[in-house]
Amino acid sequence: MSTLIDEIHRRRTFAIISHPDAGKTTLTEKFLLYGGAIAQAGQVKGKKAKAATSDWMEIEKQRGISVTSSVMQFQHSGFCINILDTPGHQDFSEDTYRTLMAADSAVMVIDGSKGVEAQTRKLFKVCALRGIPIFTFINKMDRDSRDPLELCEEVERELGIDTYAMNWPIGCGKEFQGVYARDKQRILFFGDNGRGKKADSIEVDLDDSAVGDIIGQKRWETLQEEVELLGAGREFDLEAVQNGMLSPVFFGSALTNFGIEPFLEGFLQMTSAPLPRVADCGEIDTFNPDFSAFVFKIQANMNKAHRDRIAFMRICSGKFERDTEVYHMQSGKKMRLSQPQQMMASEREIIDEAYAGDIIGVFDAGTFAIGDTITVPGKKFKFSGIPTFEPEHFMRVSPKDTMKRKQFIKGAEQIAQEGAIQIFKIPDTGMEEVIVGVVGTLQFDVFEYRMKGEYGVDLHMQRLPYEHLRVISKTPCEPKELTLCTGAQVLEDFRGRSLIAFGGIWSVGFLLKHNEGLELIESVTVQG
After folding, report:
1. Segment 206-250, tens digit of pLDDT
2. Those residues with Cβ within 8 angstroms of residue 99's Cβ, 6 or more apart along the chain or in another chain
3. Are strands 325-328 and 373-375 parallel, antiparallel or unpaired?
4. Which of 302, 298, 346 is nearest to 52 (CA)?
5. How far from 412 is each of 38, 398, 401, 429, CA to CA, in Å?
6. Which residues make beta-bridge pairs with 109?
7. Percent of the chain beyond pLDDT 70?
8. Helix ranges, 232-335 (H)
């Protein structure tokens, strides 16, 4: 039992969130560098640069953005760290929302020159709803940045969370030389060893006269005044941090590696071991020896050679052992997970065991769905479900080559099962064409790219005027016989539900008025 408790205690599972281009994926790379998981960090962008380790889809490598969450595990300072790198672009926010359900804390990356941006606000709200700890890394201090105090105040004002500066930057842009570490009460000066390697650092007392020689007498005096001003502010409160009420703030540069190691070390000490999860029978204790997990992500074709499908599971309690019999709540069946894997983006390693807090991937032949619960036989409960969101953009999609119908159907079904892109069909018709619904329009590009690259199908795509979707919960007649307003369409999803897609929200009133007995509900659902 002591081994189980020790192993769980050393787990740290967190997501990295940010607005696009704030440096989130670069920061993830540097965590892997300092954790020894990679020998040299790759550039995220640039014609001659290799793709980020955490970006595995070809479209991600080409565009220099993350469009799907990646999972990475590495060891550092006695901790076993699971990083969930999430897409920053709002068009892929649904994938981020689901991934946050599997995290115990979040690292929020903010561009030092731009401050809090739109997508940062949205993602922060999801974290705040769960009350998970949020750690702030103000990035790109190697560029001209806004006043540090102003940035901290903006985080407090915009996001409604108190902040505590764990360090303080010395200069910005080309003059960014280091940080003052408040816990050590010492200055850390960083040396540039190249962006792909760890940064050297030297520590100097704030009152050491050598500081004035390094940064100049005037800046030294200003730094002393700023440090004194910080000391007059609120005190650090670890309990408030772990309850999501106080965000520790670190300044640095992921690109130059300045401040990365102090941030990683401080984060690991402040964040907690895996948190309990809520199920329909109450709270499930992380340290309960009985294994339990839930599926938060499904991804097809991570390995082009095998055309496989992986279900990602967050282990919530106990210890997982390979080939041990488990129970799948949704199907009511016992099964053995014989080839569990841990991930480094698309790289995989078969494992024999894993513990609460870990993320594992298992081969899925269509058994699992987002939100499914897996337990030991004899334990029957379901973890709280994961929401799916109403699509806001729709397209009619069909294969250009009718001889590719079989590949078209397979691709549409597999991508639909992943959950981020929703697929519908018109009732009483075949699968010669489908209706694709997405939260953000960039998902259409991903769908088209994947259908071509993974299934060999070129597509005809036509925009549709729908903006909303409602599930038909009760109807006075067959759905196809309903009186519809202009621009509305009855659809059917892959779960067999009947829905109505329509334009303006005023259409709801028309539908209810002209179809007495019709009842509609929001299409946002909870899976699991």
Report:
1. 888 888 888 888 888 888 888 888 888 889 999 999 999 999 999
2. 15, 69, 84, 86, 296, 297
3. antiparallel
4. 346
5. 35, 10, 15, 15
6. 18, 137
7. 86
8. 238-242, 260-270
Question: Per the structure block, which two tokens stand in for 201?
Answer: 């650092």
Output DSSP code: residue 487.
T
How many Cβ atoms sit within 10 Å of the Cβ of residue 438? Answer: 23
Give pLDDT tens digits for 324-381: 999 999 999 999 987 888 765 456 788 899 999 999 989 888 788 888 999 999 999 9
- Structure-token pair, residue 493: 């999803």
Retrieve residue 524's tokens: 């946002």
Q: With 80 as the cut, is the pLDDT of residue 89 above it?
A: no
Cα radius of gyration (the chain): 25
Q: Which residue has the tokens 């919530």?
A: 316
Among the residue ranges 397-411, 433-447, 502-516, the one predicted with the least confidence is: 433-447
Q: State the number of CA atoms in the 13 A half-sphere of 225 facing the CB.
A: 7
Sheet holding 468-474, edge to edge: 459-464, 393-399, 434-438, 422-425, 489-493, 498-502, 468-474, 519-522
* Residue 23 DSSP code: S
pTM as predicted: 0.76
Q: What is the mean pLDDT of residues 28-35?
A: 83
CA–CA gap between residue 449 and residue 445 (Å, rounded)? 6
Distance, C-alpha 401 to centroid of its chain: 36
> What is the number of residues in the chain?
528
The Cα–Cα gap between 154 and 174 comes to 24
More confident residue, 3 or 90: 3
Residue 487 region, left (φ>0) first, then alpha (ψ -120 to 50), else beta?
Answer: left
Partnered with residue 83 across adjacent β-strands are 14, 72
CB 496 within 8 A of CB 427: no
Distance, CA of 521 to CA of 519 (rounded, Å): 7
Question: How far is residue 252's CA from residue 150's CA, in Å, rounded to a whole number?
Answer: 16
How far is the C-alpha of 475 from the C-alpha of 344, rounded, in Å? 48
Task: Identify the weakest region by mean pLDDT among 87-101, 168-182, 200-214, 343-357.
Answer: 87-101
- Please give the full DSSP string across 365-426, using - where no structure is assigned: SS---TT-EEE-TT----BPPEEE----EEEEEEESSGGGHHHHHHHHHHHHHHSSSEEEE-
Give 265-318 pLDDT, tens digit per residue.
Answer: 999 999 999 999 999 999 999 999 999 999 988 876 655 555 677 888 999 999
